[in-house]
Amino acid sequence: MGVDANSDEGRALQALxxxxxxxxxxxxxxxxxxxxxxxxxxxxxxxxxxEVARDNAPVSRVVAAPLAADEVTAEAERxxxxxxxxxxxxxxxxxxxxxxxxxxxxxxxxxxxVPGSAVMAMExxxxxxxxxxxxPFSGPEARLLEAMLKAIGVSxxxxxxxxxxxxxxPGGQAPAPHHVEALTPFARRHIALARPKVLLLFGExxxxxxxxxxxxxxxxxxxxxxxxxxxxxxxxxxxxxxxxLKSGAMKRPAWKLLRSAAASLRGExxxxx
Length: 273
Prior knowledge:
GO molecular function: 4 iron, 4 sulfur cluster binding; deaminated base DNA N-glycosylase activity; metal ion binding
Keywords: 4Fe-4S, DNA damage, DNA repair, Hydrolase, Iron, Iron-sulfur, Metal-binding
Distance between the termini: 34 Å
Shape: globular
Region (Disordered): 34-57
InterPro entries: UDG_Type-4/5, Uracil-DNA_glycosylase-like, Uracil-DNA_glycosylase-like_sf
Largest sheet: 6 strands, mixed
Pfam families: UDG
Number of domains: 1
Strand content: 5-15%
Structural class: alpha/beta
C-alpha cells in the first residue's frame, strides 16, 4: 500500500530520505555510507546571505592591558548583559579585544537567517570552508544541517543559524577553557535575544549555553526545557555537525532527536493557533 506524499507520514519519509542523503547514504542495501561531498567538487549554486555575519563590522577596537581569565569572563558578562538587540551583541563580541580569539582568525561569523524564527541552530564554531569563504554555514556540514531542519519541517531560509564561537581557532582546535567561559554569556544572551521556540545545540561546549556543567556525554541526544528572559525554549543537544556527518553510529540517535524536536515544534504551533 502506498503512502500519500502530502500526509504526515509521507513528509516524514521524505525528510528521512533527505537526511540520509545528506549523510552520504544513497542505497538501501549498501552498508557503507558514501561521502557525496568528496565525490562532487562542483561549487554550490546557493550562496547564503550573511545577514548578521559581521566580517568587517564598523566597530573600533580598543586594546587594553591584559586581563586575568576571571576578569575577562566578568567583562564578557557585563557586555553581554548590556546588549539590547542582536546587532549590539554582535558588535560587543566583535570588539571584545580582551578575549583574543579574533587575532588569529580571518573572519568573524556571528549568525545568519531570521532572528525571531521558531527554530534556532547553534553550531560550535565555523568550519574550514567557512573560514576560507567568509560565509557562515557554507561548508559540507551545511547540507546536513539543511536536511536536519527539513526533517523538523523548517527550511534553512526560515531558521536562524548561529555559532557559539564566531571565530575558527587555528587548525580547528577547540577553544581553550577560558575562552569557553568568556563566550558562554554571549551565547546565552544570543539565545535570549533570538527568542526561538526550538533550539538545536551542536558540539561539546555549545551546551554551556544551557547553564549545565555536566560532561557532554551525559547531555548529548537529550532534550531540555529552559527559560531565557521569561521565554520558554525546548533545547536539543547533539554532537557537532562534522561528527554526525562522519559517524554511521550517530545516524539513528540524531534522527530520533530530530523527531522529538519536530514534535515539540508542532506542539508549539498548535498552542499558538
